[in-house]
Amino acid sequence: MSRPPSVDRLARSLSDTGLPHPVLVAAARRAISAGAPDQARLEALRLRDALLRPVVNATGVLLHTNLGRAPVEHHHPAEASNVELDLETGARGSRHSGISQLVALATGAEAAMAVNNCAGALLLALAAVAGDGVAVAVSRGELVEIGGGFRVPDVMAQSGARLAEVGTTNRTRRRDYEQAVAAGAGAVLKVHPSNYRIEGFTEEVPLGQLAGLGVPLLADLGSGLLDEACPWLPAGPPPWLAGEPAARQSLAQGADLVVFSGDKLLGGPQAGIIAGRRDLVARCGRHPLARALRPGGLVLAALQETLLAYLRRDGDAIAFWRLATASVDGLVDRAERIVARADVGQVAASEAVPGGGTLPGRAIASAAVVVQGDHLAELRRRERPVIGRVREGRTWLDLRAVEPSDDDEVVAALRGGR
Ligand SMILES: *Cc1c(COP(=O)(O)O)cnc(C)c1O
Questions:
Q1: Ligand 1: which of 69, 118, 152 to mutate, judged by most atoms within 8 Å of the beta carbon?
Q2: Ligand 1 centre and the CA of 116: distance in Å?
Q3: How many CA atoms within 13 Å lie on the side-chain side of 109?
Q4: What is the biggest distance separating any 2 CA atoms in the chain, rounded to whole angstroms?
């Protein structure tokens, strides 16, 4: 029997992977002890695949949770910033004061704060407004699971609030909420069912008709559309957005607090926003959970940049909106050029979707490069993985969520180069 190769020599032979030496030593050890030293490279690459790296999103799903939802461009120098310093007084400040003022301007809220995600925002809002067993009225048609373990009744239970189910799965009326409040409910929660829809014999109470019940009205909007009028888009709201509830209009209709995600239609970093009445936002800020859910300076800075772009009415500065509103003709042109340069595949009309659990059943016209066969695995194995979709035995690379600067990557991927 030949002696196994030295761990160190084997690890050194993998240095071109760019991984730190101790990582390569671990991979080499694992392969040698499995009696397969020639598998060491595979072991190392498997580990590298577990690390985050940029990919090309050619799935046609703009907000793909597996791909980090909204793409955010952000540069953050290794510098201190006034996260919790009031520059005017020199005293300790609130990490939410900047975000609060920007969200207020963008939505008409009195105040706002940011936490780690929308699940955290709802948890905190419920705990602050209705913890200690206060009953919260929710329609049975809105006790939804959004995905990734987010279930409204479970979040409610964790918040310490007590769920008061009203109405039925398909029909809920204002009188159902009135009765719940008369029976002691201390708040009403309206949940945007997001990726779920009931059709047929249904009835729900629009948010505006839930105002004036005499208890705080909370709305979990999920998607994070700031304003139905989309003043940051020169052409106004795109047709696929119709009917999506927005923060500004929800507050105007009487919601006392709205919560929404930072990385869905807002197009920012992963975050959750709580916005609305000043006293209720302050109550959220004082709750002990606020400390556990607070975002760091990196996220606050990226969120601030996103909100400033909205206030400049510069939708092009927000990658999600730039990609979502790119013209179909432009996408077709790009697809044609890609096919010509790669000398493979053909151009096809495609339907992209917003994704992120928002706007189910809504399509955004798009263009794709389509090639025969299933090439997903080899496209994923590239240095810069290209993530596509397979339909009816053909690989679809939808350009809706692909930055034009990544077209070269798509061409190289189709040519089979690295
Ligand atoms: C997506 C969504 C959530 C969860 O948002 P995260 O930011 O992923 O925590 C909560 N509520 C609704 C209605 C949603 O659509």
A1: 118
A2: 11
A3: 32
A4: 84
Closest-CA residue, ligand 1 atom 1, reads 222
* CA–CA separation, 25 and 154 (whole Å): 44
Number of C-beta neighbours around residue 122 at 10 A: 28
- Burial, 418: exposed, middle or buried (Cβ in 10 Å; 0-12, 13-18, 19+)? exposed
d(CA 76, CA 79): 8
- The SS3 call for residue 350 is strand
Does this model's pTM top 0.85? My answer is yes
Which protein residue's CA is at the shortest distance from atom 12 of ligand 1? 222
Residue 145 Cα to ligand 1 middle (Å): 10
Q: Which residues pair with 386 in a beta bridge?
A: 56
Q: State both tokens at 310.
A: 């909205």
* DSSP bridge pairs for 61: 353
Residues 6+ apart with CB under 8 A from 417: none
Give the distance (Å) from ligand 1 centre to CA of residue 222. Answer: 4
Backbone angles phi, psi at 303, to 5 degrees: -65, -40
Digit-coded pLDDT (tens) for 163-206: 999 999 999 999 999 999 999 999 999 999 877 788 888 999 99
Lining ligand 1 with CB less than 6 A are: 117-119, 146, 150, 191-192, 194, 220, 222-223, 261, 272, 357
Q: What is the Å distance from ligand 1's center to 336 Cα?
A: 37
What's the pLDDT tens digit per position in 356-376? 877 877 899 999 999 999 999
Tokens, residue 266: 């807002």
Q: How do strand 61-63 and strand 346-355 relate by DSSP bridges? A: parallel
Closest Cα to atom 2, ligand 1: which residue?
222
What pLDDT, on the 0 to 100 scale, is given for residue 318?
98
79 CA distance to ligand 1 middle (Å)? 32
CA of 331 to the centre of ligand 1 (A): 30
Ordered strands of the 394-398 beta sheet: 61-63, 346-355, 364-372, 394-398, 389-391
